[in-house]
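Case study 2.
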Amino acid sequence: MLTRRQALVAGLTLLPTTGLWRRALAAPMPQYAHGQVRLPSGRRIGYAEYGDPSGPLVFYFHGTPGSRIEAGLIADEATAAGIRLVALERPGIGLSDYQSGRRILNWPADVASAAEALGYGGTSFGIVGLSGGAPYALACVRCMPERLTHVAVVSGHTPLCPAGAPSGSQDKLIAWVGRRPRLATAAFRVASNQLRKHPKFVLHKVSESWAESDRQLILCNPAYYSALNQTLLEATRCGPEGIVTDVTLLGNDWGYRFGDLPPASVSFWQGGCDPIAPAAMGHYFQRNVAGSELTIDPRAGHLTVLKWHAAAILGRFATK
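Prediction:
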């Protein structure tokens, strides 16, 4: 049985697993448009927009945990590429209503409804999925390949279930959340309260598991503490239940097999210094997703691979 202190440490350790950050710049953070779209069921999905509102649509799927604010990390690159980057929040996170009993394969229908609500009904769009957003990006390949211009999975985390799947530094904690959801809920609630009361302590704690390149990108900028704090708080805005569900789904069977994915344009981008989703995960994806491409930056970590390669990643959508 884990103690309260051990549960707190588990919650804190999981917080940085998926790139919960905005732009690492000394200048003030940019304003962004955000809101909610209402689905046919009445449930609401939160979103934020970055980049060029007249450009081709690219959906951003945040990490686990994450929020719509996370995509602000590549706002400048989206503008430069002429991309309309819309970050969607999964159920129970940020501005999105909780959805009891949801599955990963429920997500493509939500994405299609969001596209229609934003004025893209029946038209194509692209997807960028960061880390824990990988299963949702590939679920869209599984369910609606005809709608997709390109799918870029960045720092993608592989499933825990299949034999031969590589491991990352947070795999044991991800599995623990799935086994002990009630204790995990308490851990995330304590971690969120600690973040509100002692943000410097929490940010120091979570940075211990980062790659050095990610640590330098984030911790060398005093203004970034405020942005990171805001993002983490937003991820738990609806309470910890949404995060616990998201982590549990990441660690369980995703509901589809890579060999069943139809032909689509898919690229994987992985950091060679990333302990959370190491380069071996990129190789695993590339071997199992037919026709996919793989780029590994040996210098990059979990977040820096997205930031350093944002222009090339978003350029894939600008040329479609």
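The radius of gyration is 18 Å.
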